Amino acid sequence: AQSVTQLGSHVSVSEGALVLLRCNYSSSVPPYLFWYVQYPNQGLQLLLKYTTGATLVKGINGFEAEFKKSETSFHLTKPSAHMSDAAEYFCAVSRPGGKLIFGQGTELSVKP
Amino acid sequence: SQTIHQWPATLVQPVGSPLSLECTVEGTSNPNLYWYRQAAGRGLQLLFYSIGIDQISSEVPQNLSASRPQDRQFILSSKKLLLSDSGFYLCACSSGGSHEKLFFGSGTQLSVL
Q1: Per-residue pLDDT tens over the stretch B2-50
Q2: Are A32 and B100 within 8 A, CB to CB?
Q3: DSSP state for residue A30 in the 8-state scheme
Q4: Closest residue of chain B to A107, computed from CA coordinates
Q5: DSSP string covering A31-100, please?
Q6: Per residue in A23-33, pLDDT tens?
Q7: A14 contacts A103 by C-beta, under 8 angstroms
Q8: Cβ contact, residue pair A97, B98, below 8 Å
Q9: Closest CB to B43 among A45, A99, A103
């Protein structure tokens, strides 16, 4: 079975500061990993995904994530937070051809 | 690319009343379709998924049901709503035989009072 744990249901950073959202997964097979973002009153959209190949994945809006198999992690980072980054972020895992399993979500607040 | 239409955007219903949420998809054929629920303070929970017309799998036992009368139409229903059915419901689709990249609708905020 697969599962995802997002550490911290709420993260607050200052504008311009580093954003780090943590995600750890459990999977008995090589996983596919995803980060989705949900802006207020909207559906979710894909930020980035890792399937195979390079373990550092770049996504939209300056976000990136690194797959670390030894740590079973897929943390999301952005060097400099912007006010528009305030949203809820979901980490998800699947196996090839399998359904997405989402984490509990992390709400990111950005202070001016 | 796919476009997902989901309505209504908000809904307030009394306990015991019926529910029907509709989702339609444009821009793709034979999509995989999903209903997720996001309860307040919690993550996304997969409720139902469908790989084809009248082919629906339920992920968790609950007070809800789903139907897929047409290839690009997915309906979430209940005969009698419970307070615990309150939440944000999201329809999603994926294509190409893959469950992986999901496209989401804008969601329905359901309040059961």
Answers
A1: 789 999 989 999 999 999 999 999 988 888 899 998 776 566 888 998 9
A2: yes
A3: P
A4: B41
A5: PEEEEEEE-TTS-EEEEEEE-SS-SEEE-GGG-EEEEEGGGTEEEEEESS--GGG-EEEEEEEE-TTSPP
A6: 999 987 888 89
A7: no
A8: yes
A9: A103
